[in-house]
Amino acid sequence: MQAKLIEPNRIELQQGMAQEVLDRVRGQKKTYYIETYGCQMNVRDSETIAGLLQRMGYLPAETKDTANVILFNTCCVRDHAEKRLLANIGALKERKDGEEELIIGICGCMMQQADVAKKVMRRFPFVNFVFGTNVLWRLPELMLSALNGERLILTEEEGFAICEGLPARRSNPFSAFVNITFGCDNFCSYCIVPYVRGRERSRELSEVVGEVRALAEQGITEVTLLGQNVNSYGKGMDVDFADLLKAANGVDGIRRIRYMSSHPKDLSPRLMAAIAENDKVCHHMHLPVQSGSTAILERMNRRYTREGYLKLVEDLRRTVPDIELTTDVIVGFPGETDRDFEDTLSLMDQVGYAAAFTFKYSPRKGTRAAEAADQIPEPVKKERLKRLNDLQARKTAENNQKYLGHRGEVLIEGFDRRQQTILFGKLDTFKMVYFPGDERLLGTYQTVTVTECARNSLLGRME
Ligand code: 5AD
Ligand code: SF4
Fold first, then answer.
1. Considering only CA atoms, which residue is closest to atom 18 of ligand 1?
2. 10-42 burial: b if 16+ Cβ within 10 Å, else e
3. Which tens digits make up the pLDDT trace of 253-267?
4. Ligand 1 pocket test: which of 359, 382, 392 has the largest number of ligand atoms within 8 Å of its C-beta?
5. pTM score, whole prediction
6. Residue 183 C-alpha to ligand 2 middle, in angstroms?
7. What domains are there in the chain, each with its CATH number?
8. Per-residue pLDDT tens over the stretch 362-412
9. Ligand 1 centroid – CA 259 distance (Å)
10. Contact in structure between 146 and 105 (CB atoms under 8 Å)
């Protein structure tokens, strides 16, 4: 769906409030701290929140303990994060008792659930505000109300319109996340995302490319295009994800384009061709399979079969021969039999993923699968997860072996804190390589030859 935009007059109003906050805190060296849980979407949202706070005159705090504003950006997708969050908020009570000016806010997916947001506000009278994922742009209003001693809940925004042009404080100087879609329309039966992040909306192609261009001008060379299902970018518009890849590929200064996540049901031959044809598009795809059993996939509402998925992998590898695949898998989905689980193992064995994120099914209130009568007992889930992880560990090691002697370019993104002479960076295929080198090479591209394949990582040397 093409996105509705927030009306300019509403944005101006917020800008006025941001100015008011700035006037109030100017010269006081006020600081903020954001604790982020969950996926890249949340990481990217926290960057926007940080950008907005800095526009209001706040500076990043060294630690949570010294911050004047503390925000929790929450996740509700998988584990039982709610208890942990409530404990973390509770732990701040004492500090707030002695420091009334401390501002505490809670945001993110978990707060998009109206009942949870209300519970947090009720249980913790010292929390200043709670807001959802679609109203980041109203942070000035929230901050101003907190400074005025008022409490506010802002969750659902009618129609989930997109706000363009918000500032961001990016966390990585070489590589940046760029949102291309928000929300999700797929309603996989286990997943809470469509309920908390709303319907799928795509940003205008010109907005995305404009942001990529601006990032390149700031010296960023790698972008990761983000969406719950990037493959369906542009639904209802006259462009698609293949067009977007082509347009981003044309931006000077950008050397690598990554994207995540891809839904198998929307992986078209046209898109495969675009990956092959556009030289900056990296040869890595995160293609969540979730299960290797057609019966379970059906109950998950994934809209592909085991055979269909395997055929996609075959076509993809034919079109882009060196592409690496990573995936997400859920074990212990309601009704999963031993046979279904064996199907997952055999699919994993057959595909040979470079890496896999594996999860025990965890019921999310409000989703269809949570209502199913045939939930799987915890010990069974645990045992299946272990078997799956053991298999993937073998497959990862096996996959690593093929890199012995491989020569390729890496973007140096960090150094090992314990041994400062060890740098690391990823190959085009998302494989991480560790090698000796000078810290001053951070952010540069270097050619590395892989000399050793450890179980979990590749070691190499620079040319
Ligand atoms: N239980 C377990 N795993 C889940 N995921 C999403 N919802 C659930 C759930 N209820 C996993 C899926 C998805 C990834 C982001 O999180 O594998 O791809
Ligand atoms: Fe959740 Fe499925 Fe949408 Fe991914 S595609 S966010 S798993 S509903």
1. 328
2. ebeebeebbeebeeebeeeebbbbbebbbbebb
3. 999 999 999 999 999
4. 359
5. 0.95
6. 9
7. 8-160 (3.40.50.12160), 172-282 (3.30.750.210), 284-401 (3.30.750.200), 407-462 (2.40.50.140)
8. 999 999 999 999 999 999 999 999 999 999 999 999 999 999 999 999 999
9. 18
10. yes
